[in-house]
Design goal:
Helix 4 packs antiparallel against helix 5 (about 445-455). This protein is mainly beta. The protein has a domain at about 395-455. The strands form three sheets. It has a 17-stranded mixed sheet that branches. A 16-stranded mixed sheet has the order 1-2-5-8-4-10-12-14-16-18-20-22-24-27-33-29, with no helix packed on it.
Length: about 450
C-alpha cells in the first residue's frame, strides 16, 4: 500500500450532496489512512471509548494503516516527528466495521497507549507492546515480542504469544494459553488460568485462585490469598507456592532442578504428587491434620521456638546412581492435611510408612530442635496400624544393615566407645533408610540418632 494513501470508501450515492452535508458525510465516512513508518520510533494509541483491533499485515511494508470504521468520534491517525498517533475522543459508533490499525508483520515499531473503554484486541503483531485500558479488557493473540498489559476491569487474555509478559488485571481474571516466555502476573480478582505455557511464572493473585494446566517444564512461583492453587499434569522445574487459603494440589511431574519445590499453605489441604524413579528428599510440617507420604518419614524437631507443629523428613533413593539428581520437596500446612503420594500409586496407600515422635521438654531422648529436650515417644505407622515405642538413651551403636558409606559417615559422637557392628552388603540409600527405621523400631537408636543418620544420607 502506498504511504500517501488517504482513501474515502463506501460512499452513499443517494446521500445529500449539499456542500455542508458533503463535508459532514466525508468527515464521518469509513476510510483508510496510511502513513509511512520511516523514522518512526513508536506508535502511540489513545482513545476514550472504541472497539479497536491492532493487526499484523503481511502486505504492508514500511507503512501503518488505519481503517477508521467511520461514524461519530472515529479515530484519526497522524504523525508528529518520530511518533505516529492514533487518537480518538468521545464514544465511537462506527458506520461499518470497527476500527482496525494494521501494522507491518516485520519492522513494526513499539506500540503503546491507554484506552478508556471498549474491548481491544491485538493479533499477530511482532513488536513490543505496552497497552492499558480502564474497562472491557485486553486480548493479545499470536506474534512475538515483549508485552505489558494492564486492565482495571474486563480481564486479560493472551494466547500463542512468544516473549516476556507482564500482566496486571484489576478484575475479570487473567487467561494465558500456549505462551512461551517468562510471565509476571498480578490479578486482584477473577483468578489466573494458564494452559500449555512454558517459561518462568511469577504470580500474585488476591482472589479467584490459580489453575495451571499442562505446564511445560515451568518454574512457578505463586502467592495466592484466596481460592486455591491447582497444577494439573505437565511438568515442573520448580515450585514455590505461598497460599493463605483454598489449598494446593499438584499432579505435575517434578523434574530435578536447582529450584526448590516449596509449598506453604495457611489453611487448606496440600496434595503434591511425587515423581517415581527419582531420588527424593521430603520434608513435611503440619500444625493440625494428618500427614501421609509414600516416602518413609521420620519425625524430627522443628527449629525455632516451641510450637504445636510436627515436622517430618524422609528420603528415597529409587533410581539413584552415581551423580543422580534429587528432587527436594518441602511442604508446610497450618490447618489441613498433607498428602505426598508417588505417581502411579494410590494416595496414602496401605504401605505408607510414617514415624512420628512427641515428648515433653527436659529429658534425654528429646525431639531434636526442641528448646530444652524431652522424653520422646515414637510411633510407627504402617498399613494403618500404629504402635508406640519408647525412646531409649543414646546407645551410640551403629544400626546393623547400613552400607559402608553410611557407617563410615556416622559422627564420632555416635561411634565412640563402641564395638564394630556387622556391615551389610546393602549400600543403597533406600536400604540404608529402612535399616535406620528398623533400628529405631527395635530401640537400638534414639530419634536423635535416627535424624543424624538420615542427614548423612542427604
Amino acid at each position: 500500500m502506498s504511504a500517501d494513501a488517504d482513501l474515502d470508501v463506501d460512499r452513499d450515492p443517494h446521500a445529500n450532496t449539499a456542500p455542508g452535508a458533503e463535508r459532514d458525510r466525508d468527515r464521518h465516512a469509513p476510510r483508510t489512512i496510511a502513513l509511512p513508518l520511516h523514522g518512526v520510533e513508536v506508535i502511540q494509541v489513545e482513545g476514550s471509548h472504541m472497539v479497536l483491533t491492532i493487526r499484523g499485515d503481511d502486505s504492508l511494508d514500511g507503512v501503518v494503516a488505519l481503517d477508521t470504521g467511520g461514524g461519530e468520534h472515529a479515530p484519526q491517525l497522524v504523525a508528529h516527528g518520530g511518533v505516529v498517533n492514533l487518537t480518538q475522543t468521545g464514544t465511537h459508533e462506527p458506520r461499518g466495521a470497527s476500527p482496525v490499525l494494521r501494522v507491518p508483520s516485520t519492522g513494526c515499531p513499539p506500540i503503546c497507549g491507554f484506552l478508556g473503554g471498549g474491548p481491544t484486541t491485538v493479533r499477530d503483531v511482532n513488536a513490543t507492546i505496552s497497552l492499558a485500558t480502564r474497562s472491557d479488557g485486553l486480548t493479545l493473540r499470536g506474534g512475538m515480542g515483549p508485552a505489558s498489559l494492564a486492565a482495571q476491569s474486563g480481564g486479560i487474555t493472551v494466547a500463542d504469544r512468544a516473549g516476556e509478559l507482564t500482566v496486571d488485571a484489576g478484575s475479570g481474571g487473567v487467561h494465558l494459553t500456549r505462551c512461551a516466555g517468562p510471565a509476571t502476573v498480578r490479578a486482584a480478582s477473577g483468578g489466573l488460568h494458564l494452559e500449555d505455557c512454558q517459561g518462568d511464572l511469577n504470580a500474585s493473585v488476591r482472589s479467584g485462585g490459580v489453575r495451571v494446566v499442562r505446564p511445560r517444564a515451568q518454574r512457578i512461583k505463586v502467592e495466592a490469598r484466596s481460592g486455591g492453587t491447582y497444577v494439573e499434569e505437565g511438568s515442573l522445574a520448580g515450585l514455590d507456592i505461598a497460599a493463605r487459603s483454598g489449598g494446593v494440589t499438584s499432579t505435575a511431574a517434578l523434574q530435578p532442578s536447582d529450584a526448590p519445590y516449596h509449598v506453604e499453605c495457611s489453611s487448606g489441604n496440600v496434595f503434591i504428587q511425587l515423581p517415581p524413579g527419582i531420588p527424593l528428599r521430603v520434608e513435611a510440617t503440619a500444625k493440625s491434620g494428618r500427614v501421609r507420604s509414600d516416602v518413609p518419614l521420620v519425625s524430627v524437631g522443628r527449629p525455632g521456638p516451641q510450637s504445636d507443629a510436627r515436622r517430618y523428613v524422609g528420603v528415597s533413593d529409587e533410581g539413584a546412581g552415581a551423580g543422580a539428581p534429587r528432587v527436594d520437596v518441602r511442604v508446610t500446612a497450618g490447618s489441613g492435611n498433607i498428602d505426598l503420594p508417588i505417581s502411579g500409586s494410590a494416595a496414602a496407600a496401605a504401605g505408607t510408612f510414617i514415624i512420628t515422635a512427641s515428648g515433653s521438654p527436659g529429658a534425654p531422648g528429646a525431639i531434636p530442635g526442641s528448646p530444652s529436650g524431652g522424653a520422646a515417644t515414637t510411633h510407627l505407622t504402617a498399613g494403618g496400624n500404629t504402635r508406640e515405642l519408647s525412646a531409649v538413651a543414646p546407645s551410640a551403636s551403629v544400626p546393623s544393615g547400613l552400607g559402608p558409606a553410611v557407617s563410615s559417615s556416622i559422627p564420632r559422637v555416635l561411634q565412640q566407645d563402641t564395638q564394630p557392628a556387622p556391615v551389610s552388603t546393602v549400600s543403597t540409600r533406600e536400604g540404608d533408610v529402612h535399616a535406620i527405621l528398623d533400628a529405631l523400631e527395635r530401640k537400638d537408636i534414639t530419634v536423635d540418632e535416627a535424624e543424624a543418620l538420615l542427614d548423612r544420607l542427604g
